[in-house]
Amino acid sequence: MHFDHPYILLLMILAPLPFLRLRPWVLFNFSSFLILPQNNLARKTVFASKIFSMGVIICLVLALSGPVYKAKEILRIEEGAQIVFVRDVSSSMFTKQEDEEGSVLNIDIASKLIKDFVYLRPGDEYALVDFGSAVVTRSGFLSDKKEFTSILFAPTTDLSGTVIDQALMRAISFFESTESINSRAIILLSDGVGRLDGVEDMVYWFSRVNVNFWWVFIGDENNWKTSDDMFGFINKYSLVGNAKAFRANNNLEIAEVINNIRSLESGIIRRPVEGSNHLLAPLLFKTAFALLCLLGIFVLFGLMVRKRKDG
């Protein structure tokens, strides 16, 4: 539990205020007062009123300090595949090409393909990494398809250059080392133009987390033919894992990507479910109001007792 305004808790020093004795006998210090009979009922009523007054102060101070109780996080174990989409958002992806629907940006083609891939299977988790001259993690693993696609189609910034190697290493960081199982995939969507250094290191890390790698090429055919670094990585990783390149404008090759995604096995997914935050202020305000009502009842009762005594 934590407090949004912890400094207000300093007002807790006012809680004992109802128990401060004003000592009226100081003004009328007559020894004859000591022989007067004590009214036990009145004394108990006054004491109870002080207790309720102190409770009201404590509840109000706690409520104003904004207490929040966070339920314990639990771990939910489910089955499904995990896919990290690595999307190129460099300057070249904001160029247009002609397709069946007319002129369209490469980045829009990539986003549409990702959406189509996401809705192929139920129960899987998806993450999104954008890259250009820098790498941006747009989302961690999400199982909610609507939430993921809303992030996918959010406004995207042109990140100029292309650092493919850093983006792929970021994607690898989503996975832990595991036994060989066909339940993980990294899908790169780019036009193939960019920096790809440290191929040997990437092959080692890809094989360590046992992840499929599929590159979906989007763009000019000339870039496809001259993407030597990317094909070099795919050829080396295919010796120890599953790696392949596909062209977005080739329906047969996209159909193969779809079949690969559908054929992914369901691995164990451990999803931490965060406990919701419970605001305690409303409950404390209600408690203070209830105590205030009880205090009013006791005050009225005390007045009735005094009135009956005087009568």
TrEMBL record:
Transmembrane stretches, start-end: 7-26, 46-69, 279-305
Keywords: Membrane, Transmembrane, Transmembrane helix
Keyword Membrane attributed: yes
Residue ranges of domain VWFA in the record: 82-261
Keyword Membrane appears in the UniProt entry: yes
InterPro entries per UniProt: VWF_A, vWFA_dom_sf
Protein name: VWFA domain-containing protein
Provenance organism: Candidatus Niyogibacteria bacterium CG10_big_fil_rev_8_21_14_0_10_42_19
